[in-house]
Amino acid sequence: MNEYVLRTQQLTKRYKTQSALDRVDMTVRKGTIYGFIGQNGAGKSTLMKLVTGLAFPTSGSIELFGATGGAELNLARKRMGVAIENPALYPQLTAAENLEAHRLQQGIPGKESLKRTLDLIGLSGTGRKKTKNFSLGMKQRLALGVALLGEPEFLILDEPTNGLDPMGVVEMRELLTRLNREMGITILISSHILSELHLLATHYGIIHKGKLLEELTSRELQERCRQFIHIKVNVPERAAAVLERELATTEFEVTADGVIRLYAHLDRPADVSSALVAGGLALEQFMPMGEDLESYFASRIGGGEHA
Ligand SMILES: Nc1ncnc2c1ncn2[C@@H]1O[C@H](COP(=O)(O)OP(=O)(O)OP(=O)(O)O)[C@@H](O)[C@H]1O
To answer: Where in this chain does the record put each ABC transporter domain (predicted)?
Structure first.
């Protein structure tokens, strides 16, 4: 899919001497869920504020639905729903009353959007319960509801899973997945925890100290975090033949230095080593390896320190 919802070019924001965003080229394609990952202070909120018009760039450009500036860009912003930082929820009001207050503030016609939105965010059963008595997960979903009132094509969500318990994270993930798959809404979502966006995001951008270090698809991330058994033997070609013949697998690769990475039989390491030894091979190294998501993230931003 090559239609862009958002593209930034060399987008830069400086606060006095502090550089919050440094020449960021970001691309969000239509229909995707873009996970924007970075530690606290990395620049995630700053980018979102620039895109939504809550702050102005020092330099660089923003293209939203093909619009690049002035009135055209402001018009394009109307196709966007936004939840950045703490949402302005009124604690004394119910979920429906909160939505109604925001509907009026945003000038969205028609009350019918209230019921539809409440159903969508799973809060239609909360009746007279005041928002102050909601769980954090419910408050986050209500904030999402506010962003959904204007039936946006593009949602920008700043850390909507922040502070949620694992169940809350799953609920938010399911809801966002539904919005994306069933309603075709493109989503830009930030988090400082990569694994929270796992199973949700289709694309990732990793930001560190204001610089976008990398953009990659979830498939590329999966490949990079793939688990394998690292095998070093005296005769790699014979080991390859043993794996194919005795363990009926071709899911391995032999690296240039003769190390085998076996991606299958990860749950049966004893069977693998026995087969190799029975094939007359001497095992020099044999260990499970691979990065998990968080260590991949740490290795990327660790590298960024020296960039
Ligand atoms: N209004 C401001 N004035 C001065 N510096 C700011 C301002 N807003 C942000 N910054 C600085 O810009 C940098 C990026 O901040 P930003 O809020 O974008 O990070 P973030 O990735 O969203 O992190 P967090 O999750 O903590 O919000 C930080 O160093 C921050 O201190």
So the answer is: 6-234
Indicate the pTM of the whole model: 0.82
Helix (H, G, I), strand (E, B) or coil at 261: strand
| Ligand 1 lined by 46 (C-beta under 6 Å) | yes
Residue 85 lies in domain:
4-223
Question: Taking the CA of residue 68 as centre, how many other CA atoms within 13 Å lie in the half-sphere pointing to its CB?
Answer: 6
Decide whether any atom of ligand 1 lies within 6 Å of the 90 Cβ. Answer: no
The pLDDT tens digits for 39-60 are 999 999 999 999 999 999 999 9
Q: State whether 179 and 35 are in the same domain.
A: yes
Of 207, 223, 239, the one marking the end of a domain is: 223
Specify the higher pLDDT residue, 36 or 291: 36
- How many residues appear in the chain? 307
Q: Which atom of ligand 1 is nearest to the CA of 192?
A: 25
Q: Is 18 in the pocket of ligand 1 (CB under 6 A)?
A: yes
